[in-house]
User: Fold this.
Amino acid sequence: AQSVTQLDSHVSVSEGTPVLLRCNYSSSYSPSLFWYVQHPNKGLQLLLKYTSAATLVKGINGFEAEFKKSETSFHLTKPSAHMSDAAEYFCVVSGGKLIFGQGTELSVKP
Amino acid sequence: NAGVTQTPKFQVLKTGQSMTLQCAQDMNHNSMYWYRQDPGMGLRLIYYSASEGTTDKGEVPNGYNVSRLNKREFSLRLESAAPSQTSVYFCASSKTGGIPDTQYFGPGTRLTVL
Assistant:
C-alpha cells in the first residue's frame, strides 16, 4: 500500500525568505511523486514530478524538490518566497491512482 | 484550448434532490477522474474512467454514479443528495492513466447540500 504524509498543515514565511514544505511517503516499490499547488478557489496545478530520473526535480515558479529514498522524503523548497506563492500545496504519490496528502497551506507575509 | 472544464461552478441542493456534475476535456486524453475535496483530507477519488467505455470505483464511490459519455465527457451524478456530500468536486484527465501520468484538473464545483 502507498501513503503520503505532509508534516505541516500550515507554514508561514516572510516574503524573500526560503520555503520548505515537508512530505514523507510510504511505498512498497519505487514511487512516482508529485507536488500540486491550489490557489484559492482554483483547481490544482502541477508544480513538478519525480519519475525515477534525477533525484533533484525542478518545477515551475522556482520550486524544486529532492527525492531521498533513504529518508522516504520528497520535500518542496524555494529559495525566496513571493506573495503569489500563498496557496495550498499537495504532495502526491502515484501507484496507478493518485494518493494525496492532506495539504499544507503556505502563507507569505509582506 | 480550455483544458478541463466543469459545470456548474456552484450549486446548492436540498437533501434528497438529484443533480449531475458535468466535465469535459479537450486534450484528447483517454483517462478521466472525479475527486472530492474536504478540509484536511486532501483529494479522494470517487470514480475514474481509464478509457472510453469503462468506469471503475475509487476510494469513496457510495452515493455517486458516473457516465463516460464519450472520450471528452465524464459526468458525476448524485441520485439523492445528502449533507455528507457537501464538498468541492474536481474533475481531472490524463493521457493514459498509467504511471507516472500527469493529471490535469478542472476548476471545481462547490456543492452544498442542506
Remarks:
- Residues 63 and 97 of chain A are 24 Å apart (CA to CA).
- Chain A has no helices and twelve strands.
- The first strand of chain A starts at residue 3 and ends at 6.
- The mean pLDDT of chain A is 92.
